[in-house]
Amino acid sequence: MNSSTARVTSEQACPIAPVLDIVFSRWTTPILWTLNEYGVQRFVQLHRNVGTITAKVLTQRLRQLERDGLVVRTYHPEIPPRVEYEISELGRSLAPLFAHLADWSADNLPRVERARQEFDGAGGPTVGH
């Protein structure tokens, strides 16, 4: 295959793509943010703090985050059994990234909203663009 027909993988085109898939998939960021902000939580607390997520989806995301090493699940064999979730050291290493994104959001989301309003007011893209 010559260079003009070689396919570029998503990792070659954007080396952070795998990280984005892990960290910014639906619900992952709110779960990690909540665990980082509030510390160890039981499922019910986490469910309440994350918001509109369903219990089924929260369970699925927590399993994936545990598999990825970003969340630690601790089972306490009591009666009734108690399960707690906390962000791992690996997950905590994302805190500076989340802080930067929070700063960017505060600084720039009003500009994004203005740009959207201008775009929508102008009728969207012009023909040919």
Describe the 3D structure.
57% of the residues lie in helices and 11% in strands. The chain has 129 residues and is mainly alpha-helical. The chain has a single domain (13-121), classed as Arc Repressor Mutant, subunit A, CATH 1.10.10.10. It has a three-stranded antiparallel sheet with strand order 1-3-2. Strand 2 (71-76) and strand 3 (82-87) form a beta hairpin. The longest helix is centred in the C-terminal third of the chain and has 27 residues, at 95-121.
List the keywords.
single chain; 129 residues; mainly alpha; Arc Repressor Mutant, subunit A; 7 helices; 57% helix; 11% strand; extended
CATH class category label: Mainly Alpha
Structural class: mainly alpha
What count of domains describes the coordinates?
A: 1
CATH superfamily: Winged helix-like DNA-binding domain superfamily/Winged helix DNA-binding domain
Binned strand content: 5-15%
Number of strands: 3
What percent of the residues sit in helical stretches (DSSP H or I)? 55-70%
Report the total helices: 7
Strand order in the sheet with the most strands: 1-3-2
Order of helices and strands: HHHEHHEEHH
Largest sheet: 3 strands, antiparallel
The radius of gyration computed from the alpha-carbon positions, rounded to a whole number of angstroms, is 20 Å
- CATH-defined architecture: Orthogonal Bundle
Identify low-pLDDT runs: none
CA distance, first residue to last residue: 32 Å
Named CATH topology: Arc Repressor Mutant, subunit A
- The shape, in one word, is extended
Mean pLDDT: 88
